Amino acid sequence: MYRDLAFDPYDDSLDESELGDYDFDDYSLSDPDFRDLDFDDYSLDEPDVFLDVPFVPTDEKVVQAMLDLAEVTSKDLLYDLGCGDGRIVVAAALDRNARGIGIDMDPMRVAEAMEYAGNTGVEFMVDFFEDDLLEADFSQATVVTLYLLDLVNVELRPRLLNELRPGTRIVSHAFDMADWRPDERKSFSGINLFKWIVPAQVAGAWQWQASDGDTYKVELEQKFQRIKGKAWVNGKKAQLNNALLSGDLLELLVQKDAENSPISFIMRCEENQLVAADGDFQATPAVKIKDTI
């Protein structure tokens, strides 16, 4: 299913050497790559409205790389937060047949984006609004694109995690989200692009029945998409060999004892239950329980 997304369980008490091969110094919030930035169009005169982020157009090739990384298709609704002149939203409509909405605090940029959409003939597929990014409703998005500053990304992060549906893809140009590690990172012409998949909330104690009649329980701890935990089978301690979370999909690899091979349970988070998404080992949905062992 998604075994190539393997990660090491996260524990705030662990030092970097215990967290596997993830390199915290691989990129830095304090050292973004500005090689593609062109400030010629940015006026130093006092603006009519306060802008948290200056308008810096994204190169068209980078726009395509962002849409590729987000895997945008005609089934998507893309929101570009801080849309500027609307080029990402328009490109998604033109090249991917995707619906799009751009949000920006600058009314002049919103007007430019609407004019651009009209000139390219995609005005019926897109819309643009003047709004505060910290208050605008983008909960219906299946893809969110960002070209903001790191501090703005971090300020938006709670809303992205709590208001977007699990599985929504987020792609950011140049800036990451502090300790929310990206699910994927690519460098395009020296520019860092980051991708996150909004994870389902699966922390807590869960119980389900297997097809052989055994009762499984797990207690899961979660930090973003990273999961660790403990497992029991029929009330006896078992081994949780691995736990992977990607969007609304959760895979738990549980070993009953040394005499039995591990069993992989692949579940989808739906309405506070974990229902079987693949395989025939799980007989009932996993439900949250209050008691722990």
Automatic annotation (TrEMBL):
BP GO annotations: methylation
Molecular function GO labels: methyltransferase activity
Keyword S-adenosyl-L-methionine (UniProt): yes
Keywords from the UniProt entry: Methyltransferase, S-adenosyl-L-methionine, Transferase
One Pfam family cited in the UniProt record for this chain: Methyltransf_25
CDD domains: AdoMet_MTases
Ranges where the Methyltransferase domain occurs: 80-165
Alphabetical list of PANTHER family matching this protein: METHYLTRANSFERASE DOMAIN-CONTAINING PROTEIN
Name recorded for this polypeptide: Methyltransferase
Species of origin: Marinospirillum insulare
